Amino acid sequence: MIRIPGLARRPLAWGGVLTLIAMLTACATEKPTSSNGGGGGTLDNPGAVASVTITPKNVALAPTGTQGFQAVALTGAGDTAHNTLTWQLVGKGTLVDTSTTGGTHASHVQAGADTGQSMLIATVNTLADTAFINVTSQPVASIVVAPADASVTAGGTVQLQATVTDASGAPLSGRKVTWSSSAGAIATVNGSGLVTGVASGSATITATCEGRTASAAITVTGSGPPPPPPPTGGCPGAWPSGVYPRMPLSTGQAFYVSPGGSDANPGTIDQPWQTLQKAFDALQPGQIAYLRAGTYGSFCSASTFRRAGTLTAPITVQGYAGERAVLHGQIRIDGSYFRLSNIVAEGPTCGTWGATTRQGDNMILMTPGLTHNVEVSSSEVYHDGWHAGISAGGDDIWILNNYIHDNGGFNDTSQINTSHGIYYHGGTRGVVANNILEHNRAKGLSARFTANHILVINNTVVGNGRSGMDVAESTYAWTFVNNVVMNNGNVNDGVGINTGGSAGGATNIEINNILWNNGTSGTSNWDANATVTNNVVADPLLANPVSSAPSTTHQGYSNDYHLKSGSPAIDFASVLYALPFDFGGVCRPKGQGPDAGAIEQQ
């Protein structure tokens, strides 16, 4: 038995456990003392207690389980001594049904809900003994992953399930399972066991729980994606004579990029590169890099293309068919003969979407004087925080079949005239066709400086704050044709198509555009500083026009801009300018003639 001078009935906190252990060691040889009954014996036999003992000494309990304990004080002769005893529990749990007087003392401890160790102390004046309660849940004896073997295509997914059991084979719930992949360039796995195929090959997916492991063998199959669409979109119609010819396909060697790859890899589908910048730096004329599903770049950084293809062999970076390749940060294009296609540019380039001040800069930026013969196509561009989703500049630019929406700081009132879907800032010859320009802060399209000879064809321009499309300063020779322009300029007295500030005068041409409800009065549909032929003011009868609220997350293409039966835009477009395919790749025309707007009626 151990005597602890001065302990008496003072409560003992966890912070005193180490002190208690030291005191136990120091006092191991101290002999009992007696003073005024301090030995805890009967009143006529003071000092009779020589030891206190708790049984059991060490127990394991399940959470909220209960255990009984006994404490007895003995005289030096080994007899039971009658005394007053104090119980104390240090740690989590509850003392119940304790007895503190007599010879043998009983107590019950009900464990808490959490695992861990508690200490029970029985004290008779300066004498004490301890017992330990270890609260443990039922240990995991085994783990099983199902299916144990699975095959998935590159870009596809398969869900794995992990079952953990105790020694009797009973399933255990609430246990944390962690997942890992032996080859992230082949297959990745998230925290819930969802496996995504990245490139052909084999990988082992392992589940771990409380030191137990189990694995599944994953085989990823897949081949190279289909080639990009031909310049005509795969449609039989000829390229219209009034439109500058599009760049040819990239037909050289194909490379692959995946967030699970490595820039030290050879760039094959089985061993892809990892970063967008690697593709920008490595591709040669005629070559193409396919971006697999995932996110590339980072906010507050830039990826820059500086290389040059050739007139007959452009360089292409394109999202893998059927997968979503998301680009973060600024995409700067300072090169030439280059096509960027089938990607998602998600902003802002730096900062926080929805802030009340300027956040980042242009998302896709072309530099006049460095950039020429560049195409951005079949992509989604949204949530730029300042100035433009696409800032286009340079000679021979094509912006085709893109969904460009919710760009600009909607909570920053200073951006009402400065943040747009497309900002065209210089250069000669360009084609802006088959795009949906939806709900951008200031204008769907804005042009300044000396941008000239630009064709704006078959776009659907809806819900932009200041104007649908606006050209000013030294711009000239802009042609707006076959566009549907609706519900724009209803903030700060805007316009549908505004050429009033342009130096072009009659060199700016407007042909066969459908305009409706543009400007705060609903009548400011276009400006007269242009040659206007056959514009029509009429409701285009869109299936589901744009909502007035900006999107706050990636919501995809949710508004429906198909034309209802009876729309004045049906068969209305000029055949001299209409491309042989529409926004979604549907071949034009479906009726007697092509339709105005980005989407051909089915």
Task: Describe this structure in a few short sentences.
This protein is mostly beta strands and 602 residues long. Among the domains are: 2-135, Sandwich (Immunoglobulin-like); 142-221, Immunoglobulin-like (Sandwich), CATH 2.60.40; 251-319, so0334 like fold (2-Layer Sandwich), CATH 3.30.1910. 3% of the residues lie in helices and 41% in strands.
Task: Map the helices and strands.
Blueprint: E1 2-3, H1 17-26, E2 49-55, E3 58-61, E4 66-75, E5 83-84, E6 86-90, E7 94-96, E8 101-102, E9 104-110, E10 116-124, E11 127-135, E12 142-146, E13 149-153, E14 157-159, E15 161-165, E16 178-181, E17 187-189, E18 194-197, E19 201-209, E20 212-221, E21 254-257, H2 276-282, E22 288-291, E23 294-305, E24 315-319, E25 325-333, E26 336-341, E27 344-346, E28 364-366, E29 372-377, E30 380-382, E31 388-392, E32 395-400, E33 403-405, E34 420-424, E35 428-433, E36 436-438, E37 443-447, E38 452-457, E39 460-462, E40 467-473, E41 476-481, E42 484-486, E43 495-502, E44 509-511, E45 514-516, E46 531-533, E47 536-537, E48 542-544, E49 560-563
Describe the structure.
The protein is built from two helices and 49 strands. The chain is mostly beta strands and 602 residues long. Among the domains are: 2-135, Sandwich (Immunoglobulin-like), CATH 2.60.40.10; 142-221, Immunoglobulin-like (Sandwich); 251-319, so0334 like fold (2-Layer Sandwich). It has a 16-stranded parallel beta sheet that branches. An eleven-stranded parallel beta sheet has the order 21-22-24-26-29-32-35-38-41-44-46, with helices on one face. Strands 1, 3, 6, 10 and 11 form a five-stranded mixed beta sheet that branches. The radius of gyration is 38 Å and the shape is elongated.
